[in-house]
Specification:
- The protein has 232 residues and is of the alpha/beta class.
- The chain has a single domain, classed as NAD(P)-binding Rossmann-like Domain (Rossmann fold).
- A 7-stranded parallel beta sheet has the order 3-2-1-4-5-6-7, with helices on both faces.
- β5, α5 and β6 form a beta-alpha-beta unit.
- α1 packs across α7.
- The mean pLDDT is 94.
């Protein structure tokens, strides 16, 4: 597909990987809309990048419905959804509360589902579209203290495969990017930590992968792309 003039929605687009993707797509001529939960952050990012911003908590159905009402009024359609909103939580199994577990699932799984469902309504109507779910290498293997986060990313991978099977007949490409550790504020916010040694992935690498997946001719698509740092 052509990025120029493409209508692209990026959830969690005000910071980190979402921000970098929004910046890159805007530079290449796309119409970009980011959404996020924090009004100040979304407004500032939208202003910096000269793109559209919308305040929405993707775990809340009404917020997602309002987001897509705005999309229909503004664009009357959509070309790309990048399901990037996500949070982390890392703790020993015996210390993980149901509140901790549910909070991660509400954003990483239910949120992706709600946004994906509304985007799919547009894509099936148009008989074309693109979805990129931002997963993680945590969707491929488990590790200590990762119960809530790993389970959410395994679930996202399963949803990606279901959507792909359902939507291919409507010419919708459903893809997933699985980054390993990326130097953003995600690690610090989730308590996982961050090693800014210059050898780990930056958000720009993930934006490059998303661009490569989308710009492939529509006759084909890359189902999954796992991205590792060469020597972290």
């Amino acid at each position: 597909m052509e990025i120029k003039n493409a209508r692209i929605l990026i959830t969690g687009g005000a910071t980190g990987m979402g921000y970098e993707m929004a910046r890159l797509f805007k530079e290449l001529g796309a119409e970009v809309l980011i959404c996020g939960r924090t009004e100040k952050t979304v407004i500032e990012a939208a202003k910096e990048l000269d793109i559209l911003g919308f305040i929405a908590d993707v775990s809340k159905e009404k917020d997602v419905e309002n987001l897509f009402k705005f999309i229909e009024e503004k664009w009357n359609g959509l070309d790309v959804l990048i399901n990037n909103a996500g949070i982390g939580y890392f703790s020993e199994l015996v210390s993980t509360t149901i509140e901790d577990f549910t909070r991660v699932w509400d954003i990483n799984v239910k949120g992706a589902f709600l946004v994906g469902r509304e985007a799919a309504k547009i894509f099936t109507r148009q008989d074309k579209g693109n979805i990129i779910n931002i997963g993680s290498t945590a969707s491929q293997y488990g590790f200590a203290n990762g119960s809530a986060y790993v389970a959410s990313k395994f679930a996202l991978k399963g949803m990606t495969e279901c959507w792909r099977a359902e939507l291919r007949k409507h010419n919708v490409r459903v893809m997933q990017i699985n980054p390993s550790e990326v130097v953003t504020d995600f690690g610090e916010k989730s308590g996982y930590g961050s090693d800014k040694n210059g050898k780990k992935l930056s958000a720009s690498e993930i934006a490059h992968v998303a661009l490569s997946m989308l710009t492939m001719h529509d006759v084909g698509f890359i189902t999954d792309a796992t991205v590792w740092a060469t020597n972290p």
